[in-house]
Structure formats: C-alpha cells, structure tokens
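Aim 2, interim progress. The first record below pairs a target sequence with its structure tokens.
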Amino acid sequence: MSDDPAANEPSRRSPVGTLLLSRVLITWAELTVVGFGGAVAGGAASGPPQLVVYFATVLAAVAVFMYNVDRLVAARVREAT
C-alpha cells in the first residue's frame, strides 16, 4: 500500500481534453465562416481582385488555425507548470 493520500483519490479528468474538443469546434466554425466569406467576396469580384480575395481568404484561414493552435499550446503549457 502507498502512504500517498492522493493515490486513493479518483483521478480527475484533465480540462485540456475538453478544451481540445471545444477548440476544434470553434476552429471549424471560424474556418467555415472565413471560407464562406471568401467565397462570397470572391464571387463578387472578377479578374485580379478575385485572386487577391483568394489569397486573403487563405491567409485568414491560416491565421485562424494558428491562433487556435496557439491557444491550445498555451493552455497545455499553463497546465504543465
């Protein structure tokens, strides 16, 4: 037997797992909004402005993805320290 009082306590579920699921859903929703917004703006433009809108949409999608990954990493580091 262990003399550690924490050994008898039931293990608590990590909030990072819940945070991961919510971040995935938020990221999916944000990417969907960015994609549809880019499609609408790209459909309204034609020629070279359409290409600029496409590049802006890709840049916004990457920014959304990287922001959400950063939030997950920050939460994991905060939990580890």
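The second target in this work package is listed in the same format:
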Amino acid sequence: MTKNELRSLYTQQMLVEAVVEPSLSSDGWIVEFRHARGGLVPLTDGNGVEQCFGDVDMATENALDIGFHQVRIVDA
C-alpha cells in the first residue's frame, strides 16, 4: 500500500504496529505494518512494488511518516 493509503488505515486505527526488517529480495530494508485484523501490509510505490530502502534509518523515517511514534526493527 502507498503512504497515503497506509496513513488512512492508521487514522482509522486499523494498523497496530510498524516493522522495519531486512529485505529478502535485495540488499536493503523494507517497511511493513501489522493490520488490526492480522497479517502484514507492506509499504509499496504507486505500482504496488514493495519499497526497499538503503539503510535502516531511511526505512524507519518512512514508517514514522505514517503516524507511528515507535517502530520495531527486526535484525537479520
């Protein structure tokens, strides 16, 4: 989901956690959000491609942009 879509879910209290973890497909970090109904929702671009960030700080900043005040970082 895009940042705007995720922000909308956050304001509806449908997202309960922000998670930053290493990407399995490339050398970088991805951002996912735990949905209130279960499962993880990834941050994607407008084409639905999962966004990958070069460092953990940039990934964390993007997670905080959604509205969360803290982010869980999963180390490899």
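Strands lie at 15-22, 29-35, 40-42, 72-73. This observation will shape the mutagenesis plan for the next reporting period.
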